[in-house]
């Protein structure tokens, strides 16, 4: 998700919760520092270990209020990135990516909308929280997060709910270009190792279903690492007719393989 969305979301919620806006926004941008470093994107700087390390360091520097706001901002970044199919290495040093599997652009739009609603109703929300005290805040937060997730699932098409394309590859997927799909087939080529410009390792292979086939680009760290030719799998990811190579249909940003 882009920096603007991260910053807006952190700004909206830090104001409501009375956390330093400036430091929350800085925190909400910090994890993407990995784009400037020779480390894998969305891995160590998008992990709980990193958030904790930054918090401890800032606290040791005698700035616990800023440290809290900074980690709050970083956690909002981790949360938003984990909505997208690429996911994040939240449990680093474990190499698995965690993803809630939502459509990235729709999750982005939903986040912008929610942040604007929160900002527009800021004083009302603040006094609501103040009036009702701790218990109601928790209930209120829980209810809004659940409502938001339900809205995302129905609107954003979380992968496990998109069943319509199972069992089809080419013939069934044509109308799904640039959309999240779940499909099944047999791994019918050797698994090739490829690296993206950002240095992420991908497993690239062909998935066949009868005479149809498509190319799958799966981040090596996402779920099953031990894929082999002949395996029957279900893949969840973004389907495209034009993205990474011009040779044919492909699935990329894979979030689930079973
Ligand atoms: Zn990020």
Write a brief structural summary.
The chain is α+β, with helices and mostly antiparallel strands and 258 residues long.
Q: Outline the low-pLDDT stretches.
A: 160-170
Taking all Cα atoms into account, the compactness measure Rg is: 20 Å
Query: Strand tally, please?
Result: 6
Question: How much is the average pLDDT?
Answer: 78
What is the number of helices? Answer: 7
Overall number of domains: 2
Strand line-up of the largest beta sheet: 1-3-4-6-5
The biggest beta sheet is recorded as: 5 strands, mixed, barrel
What structural class should be given to the helix and strand makeup? Answer: alpha+beta
User: What ligand molecules are bound, each kind once?
Assistant: zinc ion
* CA-CA gap between termini: 26 Å
Fraction in beta strands? 15-25%
Shape descriptor reads globular
Helices and strands, in order, run as HHHHHHHEEEEEE
Q: Percent of residues in helical segments?
A: 40-55%
Structure notes:
With 258 residues, this protein is of the alpha+beta class. It folds into two domains: 3-157, no CATH class; 161-257, OB fold (Dihydrolipoamide Acetyltransferase, E2P) (Beta Barrel), CATH 2.40.50.140. Helix content is 44%, strand content 18%. The protein has seven helices and six strands, in the order αααααααββββββ. It has helices spanning 3-17, 21-29, 48-60, 64-83, 104-120, 122-156, 170-173, and strands spanning 179-187, 192-195, 201-209, 212-219, 232-240, 250-257. Strands 1-3-4-6-5 form a five-stranded mixed beta barrel. β3 (201-209) and β4 form a beta hairpin. The model is unreliable at 160-170 (pLDDT under 50). It binds zinc ion (ZN).
């Amino acid at each position: 998700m882009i920096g603007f969305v991260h910053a807006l979301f952190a700004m909206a919620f830090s104001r409501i919760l009375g956390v330093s806006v400036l430091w929350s926004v800085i925190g909400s941008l910090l994890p993407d520092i990995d784009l400037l470093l020779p480390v894998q994107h969305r891995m160590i700087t998008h992990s709980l270990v990193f958030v904790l390390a930054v918090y401890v360091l800032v606290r040791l520097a005698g700035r616990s209020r800023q440290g809290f706001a900074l980690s709050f901002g970083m956690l909002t970044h981790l949360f938003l990135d984990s909505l997208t199919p690429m996911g994040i290495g939240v449990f680093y040093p474990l190499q698995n990516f965690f993803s809630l599997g939502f459509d990235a652009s729709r999750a982005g739009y939903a986040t912008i909308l929610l942040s604007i609603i929160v900002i527009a109703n800021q004083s009302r929300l603040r006094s609501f929280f103040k009036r009702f005290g701790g218990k109601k805040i928790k209930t209120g937060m829980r209810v809004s997060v659940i409502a938001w997730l339900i809205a995302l699932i129905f609107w954003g098409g979380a992968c496990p709910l998109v069943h319509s394309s199972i069992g089809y590859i080419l013939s069934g997927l044509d109308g799904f270009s640039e959309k999240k799909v779940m499909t099944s087939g047999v791994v019918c080529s050797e698994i090739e190792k490829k690296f993206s410009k950002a240095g992420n390792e991908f497993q690239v292979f062909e998935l066949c279903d009868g005479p149809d086939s498509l190319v799958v680009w799966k981040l090596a760290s996402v779920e099953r690492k031990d894929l082999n030719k002949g395996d029957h799998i279900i893949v969840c990811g973004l389907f495209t007719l034009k993205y990474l190579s011009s040779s044919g249909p492909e699935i990329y940003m894979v979030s689930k393989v079973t």
